[in-house]
Amino acid sequence: QVQMVASGGGVVQPGTSLRLSCAASGFTFSMSGMHWVRQAPGKGLEWVAVIWYDGSKEFYSDSVKGRFTVSRDNSESTLYLHIKNVRVEDTAMYYCAKDTTGTGTAYLEDWGQGTQVTVSS
Amino acid sequence: DIQMTQSPTTLSASLGDTVTITCRASQNIDGWLAWYQQKPGKAPTLLMHRTSTLESGVPSRFSGGGSGTEFTLTIRSLQPDDFATYYCQQYDSYISFGQGTKVEVK
Fold first, then answer.
1. Could you read off the pLDDT of A24-55 as tens digits, one per residue?
2. Do B10 and B102 contact (CB within 8 A), yes or no?
3. Closest partner residue to A107 among B38, B43, B89, by Cβ?
4. What is the pLDDT of residues B6-64, one digit of tens each?
5. Which of B1, B46, B91 sits opposite A105 (nearest CB)?
6. In this structure, what DSSP letter does residue B9 have?
């Protein structure tokens, strides 16, 4: 069955960098658009980024553009999110999710369990 | 960017009630709307897409409707498992979510 296991979160200091990973299995990863969605404590869902099935295009929300970079390794069925210069407001649960089209403008049919990022000095 | 606005923010209801959540888009999204359910401490799960197409395994007491900029999620005969937070999401232009509606026990 579809499984996505996110990792790499933890407690980090402001201004540092962080890389989140999402290991996928149970579906053809190389054909799926992959997204990161975050949820701050007690808040709603915020779409963060998407990368096309082949890695050829990436799109970001305005709130993270310039600091976040999404990438993927189709040979390892793994999605990444690199966050630089982390801020307190980046504190959230980060979910990876797969879409249904491969090119990002789609609904999210499966989600990973999330990895918690806490930014604190 | 397309903004999604849900109402109400919180909805208090009893078992067996029928409830409706509204989702409004800042522009026409041509029915490219999905609904998710999220329970505390869990990832969201997809309930339906394309406004009203239920995902496999989703009970028929859930239904979706609407067009243009206004959409609804209706839950008939609320069951204990339905108390959760619900989010709409447009996928006409990239992706954006509504702020969520918590359905709580009255």
1. 999 999 999 999 999 999 999 999 999 999 99
2. yes
3. B89
4. 999 999 999 999 999 999 999 999 999 999 999 999 999 999 999 999 999 999 999 99
5. B91
6. S
Count CB-CB contacts under 10 A for residue B75.
Answer: 23
**Residue B74 near residue B64, CB atoms below 8 Å:** yes
Q: What angle do CA B44, B50, B51 make, to 5 degrees?
A: 85
Q: Tell me the residues of chain A between 60 and 89 that have a Cβ less than 8 Å away from chain B.
A: 62
Burial of A35 (C-beta count, 10 Å sphere; 0-12/13-18/19+): buried
CA B52-B49-B36 angle, to 5 degrees, is 105
**How far from chain centre, in Å, is Cα A38?**
8
